[in-house]
Structures
1.
Amino acid sequence: MKEIDLNNWDLAEQYNWFSTYSNPFYGITTKLDVTNVYNFAKRNNISFYFCFGHLVNTAVRQIEEFNIRDVNGKLMVDNHKLVSFTCKNSNERKYRFVNVPYCDNVIEFCKIAKEIDMGQTTLFSKNNLGDDFSVFLSCLPWINFTMVSNPQTNNTTDYIPRIVWDKYEEINNKKILNFGVEVNHAVVDGYAISKFVLKVSELINKLK
């Protein structure tokens, strides 16, 4: 864990300015080609949702601004332990927040995620993994959207990214989806979001 020195941080002025906002949260939506993820998941008999979520979180862990948290009034950078998925069974109306500990191996991660998901029946996890969240992930697999926003509390020091994607479409033999990223402008600017989206694309292309 590393503390950010506000006296020497390039983004200190941005942080001080946007920290005064009552609503410092903003987001962008872009398109991603996830054909490689789909093929990899199908080939390895794993969930596309969990597989893509693992890639997204791997990218999150590589962008410093996405890993900043407020710890007792100090800005700290750390790789956080949990990925939170919104999950729903096709035969149920209710959904649940499934918290999965990160591991480097995507196939092992998907197996762990599936086990936790299948064993959880309540909205919130009871697996006592804590609340050290890296990212909140969700998906709307029934529709396409061009923008998305997420509910926020009145905690303006909540720096956990929210990421949502929609139903992929077949376009020119490729699977394309809309990918929404919502962050806190006090610590994440447009340049950091751009680095993040490009990193996700890079990891998708490297998937074998």
2.
Amino acid sequence: MKRGLLIGLLAALLLCCVPARTENAFEASIVLSSYAGEAETVAIPEEIQGLPAVAIGDGCFAKSNVRDVTLPETVEFIGEHTVW
């Protein structure tokens, strides 16, 4: 059950993330822009599709049921109104 939920969560996150450029133009990373899942608890992985998750965009979880988010150490920026 937990594995299925984790796979569903990762699938929802993968649908809503965009590659970002960092200070080094050759170093790609991920910015989560929105969440399409229905879980109340979310754990962001350190990497998505082999790229580090470095930021949570403005309003990423604003229109969701999310109440608890666990962030990896790779996240360096959290946008405004991320959880509303």
3.
Amino acid sequence: MKLRNRIIALAMAASTCVGLFAYAASFLKFSPNVISVDAMEIVDSVDLDKLDSESETIIFKSSIAKAVITLEDYSYDYTGKPVYPKIVSVRRSPTAIKDLTENVHYTVSYENNVNPGTGYVVITGIGYCEGTVKKPFTINPPGPLTAVTGFKVSSTNASNVKLSWDKAAGAQGYILYQYKSNKWVRIAKPTTNTYTVSGLSPATNYKFAVKPYMMAGTVEVTSKTYPTVLTTTTPATITKATFTSSANAVKMAWSKVSGAVGYRVYQYNTSTKKWVGIANTSSTSYTFKNLKAGTSYKFTVRAYNKFNNKSVLSAKYTTFSTSTNPAKVSFTVTPAKGKATLKWTKVAGATSYKVYYKTSSTGKWVALKTTNNTTTSYTKTHLTSGKTYYFTVKAVRTTGGKTYNGAYTTKAAKIK
């Protein structure tokens, strides 16, 4: 009975995880038969009335699975760095009055102590303490970021819209949205404060939004509000046109551009070296008038649509080079015996002249001679005396691989 009382006293002492093996050995002889018991359950685990001090050795251990852990704080803001809550005390049980000692009775580790959510202080028993217990704490996700400012359209063309905005404090990147089918759809996640949306349709309105974001572990943190911009792509570029020239006018024609409400035509001023807007038209053709005969010109046309009551022109244009026709040739015909001589005045811009004749007023023109632009006369021989012939001279202008023919007049001459 005396041994029973001493063992119970030993068990009560061991309930604080104090290493008392040496004390137990002072009154228990060593035996190869070892009984290991939890100090808090000693009375139920060991039949002390039958215990033989001559043959049994008892090692007392204490479980800390139900230990009471007190932390200095249980809530922390996310910083992206590990959180290590300060431990105020660790006690074997709610009724224990003595704290356990780190690295003597237990070790400390941490779980989930970086990202937002529930983290844990993990207490693991060592020495005469055994088992593990976890104490939870909370890492709060960061608050919403400040909304982006300065969101604007930097440039547009027929298929692209370039967007830009001010950098947002704390943002790791940005989320771009496009409004489609009555809802916002995420379209890109750039890390810089500019982005070009491509693959758009010409002359079409679009709406975009942007939010800053940062990653807190696996949690995506954004702003509560976001700016939006409404814009439009430009009409497609007109790349083909046809031209019909006269001496003092050029008619330009082109195909209809989808989405365009009108067209603006331009003429290049060779003196100022600038394009000059000439007119707006809803038609797909325009005639430039009051031009100089036999002169080269540059023209272009840009389609436009309307956005916010303003005209939005196609971003690019094609330069078209053409020329007016040379003026009519002023010439004379002098008949003589069996021949006729034509003389004419030089025509500005002409690169050559063509001389024709026919034997009746309703006959077909027959080419007689093509001269250079310095020759101003020609004599047709082997004509029949008393017969009337018909003559004309046309100025010709060849430039840019194209030929422009001037108008002509017909003159009759009766051969002597």
4.
Amino acid sequence: METLGKKISNLRRIKKISQERLAEVLDVTRQTVYHWEADTSQPTGEALKAMADFFGVDVSYFFGDEISCARDSQPMPEPETDDGAYRIEKRQVKNIYLSVILILLTLCVTVCILVGSLIICDDGNMGFVKEFGITCLVIGVCGATALLIVLAVIIKNHIKAKKSKSESEIKK
């Protein structure tokens, strides 16, 4: 008897769509679809109903032995995006926020370094102002160092995520 995961996988392959596309249609993650197909977790009743509508089969197909449970009606068409609208995933929003924060930090660091340099290079004997310039320069350099460390960690995590994504696609 074919497992539920195998049935989902077969229907997806017949329709020639990726796990990621099915996940978008069902509003779940690609990993969730992967776990369903691997039979390590089970879809909810709502998800089964949505899949049945999408693939044009009766929900009972997922629990029976045959594909004879197919409906007479046509499968539900894939949702189309209107006016070029698209769904922004949570990780994309997170990346946008992170980028804005990094840009603002970079600007702050640059301003600190420039102010510190300008005050230190001034010919006047200003005492306190010169110390403020040195402080700005030190803060700017420390900020730049921290920024480089953060960027290195982000790049490392991005490469690691890409690598694990390619490995999971190879396993399919």
